[in-house]
What does this fold into?
Amino acid sequence: MRFTTSYAEAAEFGDVHFICVGTPQQAGSDAADLTYVDAAFTTLARHLRRRTLVVGKSTVPVGTAARLIRQVHELSPVGAQVELAWNPEFLREGFAVDDTMNPDRLVFGVQTAWAEERLRAAYAPVIAAGAPVKVTDLQTAELVKVAANSFLATKISYINAMAEICEATGADVHDLAEALAYDDRIGGRFLKPGLGFGGGCLPKDIRAFTHRAGELGVGQAVAFLREVDGINQRRRARTVDLVRELAGGDLVGVKVAALGAAFKPNSDDIRDAPALDVATTLQKAGAIVTVFDPAAMDNARRTYPQLSYGESAFDVARGADVVVLLTEWAEFRQIDPGAMGEIVAQRRIVDGRHALDPAEWRAAGWEYRALGRP
Ligand code: UGA
It folds into this structure.
């Protein structure tokens, strides 16, 4: 494996090029920012001097590939000899290598048999290991990705909407989710209630999809994704409310130990992290918040210098009035409630991720609260 920052060198070497740059949310809009995708395709195109396949992996609004084909053909010295394909990426952070080597499926959005053959050759070992291949047109391949992420986001918000109903009725969303999961048609994955989804993918993808559908005149078809987003945001506000309730109704001067900063465990990624959203909201409401995360401390410190940070879960819990678990790291699940109870000012915990055993914490004298649980 070699690395280069030279487009000329990459163009000279490659028969198949994969473009994997990010498509973040545009500032001040729900739309995807295509600056990096456009720059990568158009700059590479200028250097392509023989028949080549350029494959987009980035998550893009449907119709992007069709637009890029025209640009690439205009810019490449060999014009239409350069072909485009779309091959969306489905890997999860924290499982990148495994998801790449053993994907649930490969989606090849192509225009010719030659492009399909090139992709099958590039993925030969993965296909030989059993990965199913779905061949589609370009626009379907683009859509598969946003449709998949929208479905996952909807599933999470569905169970979190049920949590809101549970809160109004005294029912337990944890038990509800487990009971639903026995039905194979529903399934238990991505049905974990709690603080909801964050990260660099699900939130911005549902917004970009809604925006694109509006441009296409079919905004109504995915209008429900706005509600999916709304339910997700409300979980963050509700977590803050639970901390306030446990603190006796007022957050001013309350010492809060925030366990977790990353948007999910086993990652140092803090993009749109629910944990840090909650921590900063608590601080703005007057609480004295100290954060610990096993991996995301450097990123959190850089982006949120206004928050205080500690060295460990026990370090931040010392003297705390309320402990709030915001990212379900394994090391937080293993905390001994008796030992932590010795060092806090008040034994009060909000379990934002349903990561702890309520019976065990209550038996150790803690007031335990979780979203959607009595
Ligand atoms: C997500 C998708 O799962 C990948 O398939 C996709 O390729 C990727 O986005 C992408 O578009 O690049 P990722 O962002 O790494 O992957 O994270 P997930 O594992 O999907 O988790 C997203 C968020 O949902 C996390 O904040 C997690 O805490 C939350 N979540 C997940 C729940 O709140 N409940 C669940 O049951 C599952």
